[in-house]
Design a protein that fits this description.
mainly alpha; Ribosomal Protein S7; 2 strands; about 55% helix
């Protein structure tokens, strides 16, 4: 038997926008426990987004996050000596965390000077439905679509 599932930890809302999703994003953005620095990077990136798009930065960020979150993914499943990529639906919690991780990972790979500029650039691109994080989501969906024949192996 497996052990009991750990209790769900609830996050405190962030100081500026009073939103727990922002706290979740900042926790993923944070490196080496430097949370205040991560908050500064996020807030500055939101300001840059507001300046460039002349819209509400938080709304643009939420739109970008919804554009990046996947609805299906493929999981490897071994059946009779062969590995199959089985498409499965993504749980709501995992959807958000995958979207956040992809957004941050592809922001870090961008070519702008500072992290706040990189993050702002990726947020703007993803809110328009372009950029590397949205491409990752589309690739995941395409892979799931291609392996739809193996969906009867779902567990």
């Amino acid at each position: 038997m497996r052990k009991a599932k750990p209790k769900k930890r609830y996050l405190l809302p962030d100081p500026k926008f009073k939103d727990t999703l922002v706290t979740r994003f900042v926790n993923n953005l944070m490196m080496e426990g430097k949370k205040s620095l991560a908050y500064n990077i996020f807030y500055d990136a939101i300001e840059i987004v507001e300046r460039k798009t002349s819209e509400n930065g938080l709304e643009v960020w939420k739109r970008c996050l919804s554009n990046v979150t996947p609805s299906v993914e493929v999981k490897s499943r071994r059946v009779g000596g062969a590995n199959f990529q089985v498409p499965t639906e993504v749980r709501p919690e995992r959807k958000i965390s995958l979207g956040i991780k992809w957004l941050i990972a592809y922001a870090r790979k961008r070519n702008e000077k500072s992290m706040k500029e990189k993050l702002a650039g990726e947020i703007i691109a993803a809110s328009k439905g372009e950029g590397a994080a949205v491409k990752k989501k589309d690739d995941t969906h395409r892979m799931a679509e291609a392996n739809k024949a193996f969906s009867h192996f779902r567990f």
